[in-house]
Amino acid sequence: MKFLITSAFCFTLSIFLIGAQAKVPVDEQFRVVNQGGYTDYNTIEYNADVRGYQPFNDDFRLCFYNTTPNAYTLALRMGNRAKESFLRWIWEANRGSPVKESSTLTFGEDGNLVLAEADGRLVWQTDTANKGAVGIKILENGNMVIYDNKGKFLWQSFDSPTDTLLIGQSLKRNGRNKLVSRKSRSVNTNGPYSLVLEAKKLVLYYTTNKTPKPIAYYSYEFFSKITQLQSITFQTVEDIFDTTWGLYMEGVDSGSKFNVSTTLSGPKHNVTLSFIRLESDGNVRVWSYSSAATSSAWDVTYTAFSNDDPDGLTDGNDECRIPERCLNFGLCKGGQCNACPSDKGLLGWDETCKTPSLSSCDPKTFHYFKIEGADSFMTKYNGGSSATEKACGDKCTRDCKCLGFFYNRKSSRCWLGYELKTLTRTGDSSLVAYVKAPNANKK
Fold first, then answer.
1. Residue 329, beta-bridge partner list
2. Which of 301, 255, 306, 313 is nearest to 274 (CA)?
3. How far apart are the first and last CA of the chain?
4. What domains, with CATH codes, occur in the chain?
5. pLDDT tens sequence across 222-273
6. Which residues form the Apple domain (predicted)?
């Protein structure tokens, strides 16, 4: 009798487990091989070659793309081929780990989306195997989701942004809390710029191996008193009174029952298909897609650093405030690199301009040259230290890694420069930069 009861219990349990473990229907499964001709012939961002696959909808599609031979990224692109519009990239699975020709993308019976090389080596996956998935789709807002038979999302692309947020997508304290730029238009690895959700604000950082911590070069402040930001969401809303659309960042604060926000712009056309991106050049832009847009169905409807800012929306920040605007070194004004500072004066700038090379840390082997009315990208959002101008210079002289220093004579603040990069030419003579240069060889 005991044996019969045990057998009946095991049989019932096995039926329950089989029923609970839903499988992806055959018509929802797919396996594609990354090979053959290219499928999208519209103008493609980054001048990429594209092979488009499922899933897709009118405005979004999952694709393989490459900017260099035999190095493919699995990504979502935005734009409608029927409108002959420019196609742009809004999410990536395998940045920094490109796959080769004949790699595979599989969504099988177990509900796991898997990217693998031709030899079977796993490159990326959603980790949704045997969790009850029954399908995958791209929603109208561009969120790619794997869902169960109750419609619950087991995985969504909105939880793993790279350099871009779509409308309704968030940075989260307990989740993905930052965007990271790509290195360049042609090189798809992590770049030096990041947009980070912190306790009370959003901060743009420049990362370099010459400093122990990333350097802040811009900060989005919010109007309300904040205890602890839990999330920041990119949002849009239509103003029915003046028919404009508001683009804004909406924050949720754990210390209050209301949201806090900062407005980015107010375009005149429907911008529900928009994304905000931290670009490879270190700027932050909003791209809005609409049939009413002025050029190829796209408008830039917000820019963090603008050289043409009559309304003061960028808080006086032109592109000279972006660390690598002048690449390795240069003096910048109005977004233009117009001089290469040297101990012989201000020379004409080109891409070869760089900081002087020192052969020794011995103070006897170098000197400083001075640039009046010059500021650094790091001074506005980093407090510096209180010191006299001489004491500031002495600190830099004793520090072998210090390439120069910046001093504000009005506030008596000092900043040591371990990365000089782009200097901003100002009309304020109280701002001064000093750069280390080697002494001339004695004969």
1. 421
2. 301
3. 107
4. 21-157 (2.90.10.10), 161-313 (2.90.10), 320-438 (3.50.4.10)
5. 867 888 999 999 999 877 655 667 888 989 998 876 778 888 888 777 788 9
6. 361-438
| Residue 319 CB contacts under 8 Å (≥ 6 apart), including other chains | 283, 305, 306, 307, 325, 332, 335
- As a whole number of angstroms, the distance between CA 300 and CA 280 comes to 16
- Reported as a single tens digit per residue, the pLDDT across 370-426 is 999 999 999 999 989 999 999 999 999 999 999 999 999 999 999 999 999 999 999
Per-residue model confidence as pLDDT tens digits over 207-223: 999 998 999 999 988 86
Q: 379-402: buried (b, 16+ CB within 10 Å) or exposed (e) per residue?
A: bbbeebeebeeeebbeebbeeeeb
Q: Give the DSSP letter of residue 99.
A: B
Residue listed under structure tokens 């929603």: 139
Name the nearest CA neighbour of 196 among 210, 216, 213.
Answer: 216
User: Residues of 231-257 as b/e, b for ≥16 C-beta within 10 angstroms?
Assistant: bbbbbbeeeeeeeebbbbbbbbbeeee
CA angle 86, 92, 98 (to 5 degrees): 105
